[in-house]
Design brief:
The protein is built from twelve helices and twelve strands. The model has no long low-confidence stretch (mean pLDDT 85). The protein is elongated, with a radius of gyration of 34 Å. Helix 1 crosses helix 10. A six-stranded mixed barrel has the order 4-5-9-6-8-7. Strands 3-11-1-12 form a four-stranded antiparallel sheet. Strands 2-10 form a two-stranded antiparallel sheet. The two termini are 26 Å apart. The protein has 397 residues and is of the alpha+beta class.
């Protein structure tokens, strides 16, 4: 009976009901959009921090003599996510040829199992010394794709005579631009080591006939080092900085975290003010509606409807209006979210959105909307409608 009364009352007073829905929608829709922007922007920042391997990289700025003990120590450190030796910088350049195109002064980079750049780009680890991985810009410059072959050429000077050698590699993958830019070719450490040995006058098997291998190599000049995660970055950097001249992105990570914190504070402050203003507006709307219908509620009490029935009627009407307002707000939010995501799609990383709410967020928002409507309705019913007798209400009106 209460539901039937509520629906009949809302239908009879449809104009005021529509005004109430519009008023609530004017508050709910912007709040949904605001929270979706907060969630989307902060989630995007957090994902970029966590997923971008460049934020975890620690670079050695000077050359050292890193022996096997150093690498064993680093691999045993729980803060280290990836490490591989690097030869001298002068040994890491080469010329590449592919499909009639030539690229000179290409940086060759050593890689090993578990390379963060490969994981980020969903590229499989290199399994043999005949395979390579290219950056996207280098693959474009050479006009090659996965499965194609490229020829790597290096040169040296022996007794005043210029010598050169070359080796063909199969492209097994292409890194995303977000993983690494520039012209880089990634090869196994054995290949990188053989390149340096050949340039130092040896005859390694990979770039020569193997007649004079380097059997005394004990150290590497540098290392490619990546922290396990953002929490490990600061600890690992602190340990390495005490021994080496390094650079990392700790300050950039801290700056982004500070920006995220500021944005979160701004969003929450604006949301709190909006919710408070919306609740006061909704409370006033419910109060004026209840006062206007005081005579009708008094008549219902005179014909036998219990006070709790009147309270249930008022609450149910407001819950129905709140549900209708939330549905309309959800439609408006969806339109706004599509507009925001379309406009800013070029400025965010692949797959990221700037405006987003999860189903859990929507359910929670609906529950909060209905809860606020219920609390305000109960308060108005208790302290306004039921604060005086039916006879007093009739005399007043």
């Amino acid at each position: 009976m209460i539901l039937s009364l509520a629906l009949s009352d809302l239908k009879a007073d449809r104009l005021m009901s529509l005004c109430a829905v519009a008023a609530m929608t004017a508050v709910i829709a912007p709040l949904l959009l605001l929270f979706s922007l907060r969630y989307g922007i902060l989630t995007s920042l957090e994902n970029n921090l966590k997923n971008s391997p460049s934020n975890l990289e620690i670079r050695m700025l000077s050359g050292y003599e890193l022996n096997q003990d150093f690498f064993d120590e680093m691999r045993a450190d729980p803060d280290v996510g990836f490490i591989v030796g690097v030869t001298r910088a002068l040994s890491l350049t080469s010329d590449l040829m592919g499909k009639g195109r030539v690229k000179t002064m290409v940086d060759t980079v050593p890689t090993a199992k578990g390379d963060p750049l490969f994981n980020f780009s969903k590229v499989a680890d290199l399994k043999d010394a005949q395979s390579c991985v290219l950056t996207a810009s280098l693959a474009s410059d050479l006009n090659v794709k996965v499965g194609d072959s490229v020829k790597l050429a290096i040169s040296r000077t022996v007794d005043g005579s210029l010598q050169s050698t070359a080796r063909v590699f199969i492209v097994r993958g292409v890194l995303k631009n977000a993983a690494a830019g520039g012209a880089h070719i990634y090869l196994t450490l054995d290949v990188i080591t053989a390149m340096e040995d050949w340039r130092d006058g040896y005859e390694p098997l990979l770039f020569s006939d193997g007649s004079k291998p380097n059997t005394v190599r004990k150290t590497y000049s540098k290392a490619r080092i990546y922290a396990k995660d953002l929490n490990s970055l600061e600890r690992l950097s602190k340990k390495l900085r005490s021994r080496f001249n390094i650079s990392d992105k700790s300050s950039e990570v801290d700056n982004i975290r500070a920006i995220a914190s500021v944005l979160n504070f701004i969003f929450m402050t604006v949301a709190l003010v909006s919710v408070t203003g919306g609740a006061l507006s909704l409370g006033g709307l419910i109060l004026s509606s209840a006062s206007r219908k005081a005579r009708a509620y008094s008549m219902l009490r005179l014909i036998g409807l219990q006070p709790r029935g009147v309270i249930a009627l008022i609450a149910l009407e407001d819950l129905i209006l709140g549900a209708l307002a939330f549905v309309l707000s959800l439609i408006l939010y969806s339109a706004g979210a599509i507009a925001f995501n379309s406009h800013f799609s070029a400025f965010v990383s692949e797959g990221a959105v700037i405006c987003s709410l999860t189903p859990e967020h929507i359910v929670l928002a609906f529950f909060i909307c209905e809860l606020v409507c219920a609390i305000l309705s109960l308060a108005v019913a208790r302290f306004r409608v039921l604060s005086f007798t039916p006879a007093a209400a009739l005399r007043e009106l």
